[in-house]
Amino acid sequence: MSAESLRTFSAELHGRFAAASGDFNPMHMDAIAARRTAAGFPVVHGVHTLLWLLDWLATQEPAAPCPQTLKARFRKMVYVGDSVRAEVQQRSATALRARVLVGELEVLSLVLSGVAPERGASPLAVADAVAPVPARALDRAVADLPGSAGRLRFAAPRAAIGALFPAATRWLGEPRVAALAAASALVGMVIPGLHSIFGGLDLQRTDEADDGALAYAVRGADERFGLVQMAIEGGGWRGALDAVCRPRPVTQASMERALHEVRRDEFAPVTALIVGGSRGIGEVTAKLLAAGGAHVCITYRSGRADAEAVVADIVRHGGSAECLPYDVLQPPEIQLQSLGRAITHLYYFPTPPIARRKSGLCDAQLLAEFTAYYLTGFHDLVRVCQARAQAELRVFYPSTVYVESRPAELTEYAMIKAAGEVLCADLERFLRGVRILSVRLPRMATDQTASLVPSEAADPVAVMLPLLRHISNA
Questions:
Q1: Percentage of residues in the chain with pLDDT exceeding 70?
Q2: pLDDT at position 1 over 50
Q3: Which of 41, 30, 24, 14 shows the shortest CA–CA distance to 355?
Q4: Helical packing angle, 411-430 and 377-388, nearest 10°
Q5: pLDDT band for position 311 (cuts 50, 70, 90)
Q6: How confident is the model over 291-307, as a mean pLDDT?
Q7: How far apart are CA 377 and CA 274, in angstroms?
Q8: Starting at the edge strand that comes first in sequence, how are the strands of the sheet with 393-400 ordered?
Q9: In angstroms, rounded to a whole number, what is the distance separating the alpha carbons of residues 89 and 96?
Q10: pLDDT tens digits, 157-203
């Protein structure tokens, strides 16, 4: 390693790249939509990271010839606001290997070669018609992609993207920088589109005339794993692009199903506060309780539209529900002042993204965040609800089977949930009029558990309904 550079991907830089590339995929630009993806937060465009790396490399080697080949792999997601580090790993007379890291975790690898391959990729023959980048990301299924081909117009003048990466532009030329940005829009907005992840590029330099468009043709689409392979050509590049069609947000059981599962009065006259009830297990809990005659107040931190949709579904089918903004990281007293009913039952489902990108076994910052969500926030809320309760307060605190199995990437989550079980026992032991049920739940079908490779997950209705009956009848 002979040199390195640092960069923080601010929201401003992030927005400028989106405008210049045309890639406005919600996973990048919409925090509410991003929370329903594996990332959990808005992520930096992979090509933005790549072009920044190329820009820095160009400043390190201003006299270096334009590379003949480029191979990049996007290995981990970079969150908006992350600070990253670029470094050269290996340099020779004909090749250069570099990478980008967050902490000690490699998020992007790059290999450049100054030697042209003996046999280059074949020219791409597609229809002459050129399409603009769509205003909204297309929602494409992998099964519909084979045979797809076309030409995608660069979203902005070449100078707009070139101005963001001036050194790379001088090195590679405006068309090649613009074509790389167009590849981001191709994946994020067209194929696979809405539910996409950029995998990597394997490109060769060409001297073909630039016409301001990127040609593409799908060469392979594997429905089992959501893998999509494309041939691309334009702006002075020709080669291959890999992408993944990521899982769609999980749709939970409807109120109509809940009414078929529950007796109309079995949860009356419960008044339940369901923290984190706008989606996932909290949403299922709200619908089952309301179907059984309970009044439910579901809280949300950022997903107001999701919470209102759950309330509307419940009310439309004759249930009683309301929603309330609530942040478990803030004191609960003021946030609960608008509640007009005494709470009889508390269900605690707030969940930050669980599976996080990290470089070590145990991340202190993540552990502190989980502590605030699952321990401090829960403790403070139980104390306030207990003080307001007019009778015994019944509480449900979900633990997890990961306390026992402990997957390596979920160490902090398992640790905190184990501590949460201890906290539940002591709150029930030392607070009058509080009864707490803490259960190690299995892996269930939610946005948090969705994975690229399909795996077994329990039905939330089948898991939660017996528990709701138990806590109501205890």
A1: 97
A2: no
A3: 41
A4: 30
A5: very high
A6: 94
A7: 14
A8: 320-325, 295-300, 271-275, 345-348, 393-400, 434-441
A9: 8
A10: 999 999 999 999 999 999 999 999 999 999 999 999 999 999 999 99
Residues 6+ apart with CB under 8 A from 164: 13, 16, 17, 20, 51
Domains annotated for the chain, with CATH where assigned, are 4-245 (3.10.129.10), 255-473 (3.40.50.720)
Structure tokens, 370: 């989980």
pLDDT beyond 90 at 210: no
443 burial class (0-12, 13-18, 19+ CB within 10 angstroms)?
Answer: middle
Reading the block at residue 176, the tokens are 């090649």
Q: What is the mean pLDDT of the chain?
A: 92
First to last CA, the chain: 64
Helix (H) or strand (E) holding 436, with range, is strand 434-441
Choose among 86, 89, 216: nearest CA to 149: 216
Write the burial class of residue 84 (CB in 10 Å: 0-12 exposed, 13-18 middle, 19+ buried).
buried
* pLDDT tens profile 61-107: 777 778 999 999 999 999 999 999 999 998 888 889 999 999 889 99
Q: Supply the pLDDT for residue 449.
A: 64
d(CA 154, CA 178): 7
The answer to whether residues 151 and 213 touch, using CB atoms and an 8 Å cutoff, is yes
Alpha helices of 301-376 — where are they, by DSSP H?
304-316, 332-335, 364-371
**Is the Cβ–Cβ distance between 356 and 41 less than 8 Å?**
no
Please name the amino acid found at residue 401: V
Print burial letters for 444-462: b (CB count within 10 Å at least 16), e (below 16): bbbbbbbeeeeeeeeebbe
Q: Where do we find the tokens 């990271």?
A: 49
Q: Are strands 83-91 and 105-113 parallel, antiparallel or unpaired?
A: unpaired
User: What SS3 state is found at 26?
Assistant: helix
Task: Single out the residue of 167, 157, 160, 152 nearest to residue 51, CA to CA.
Answer: 167
Instruction: Enter the pTM of the model.
Output: 0.86
Check pLDDT > 70 for residue 346.
yes
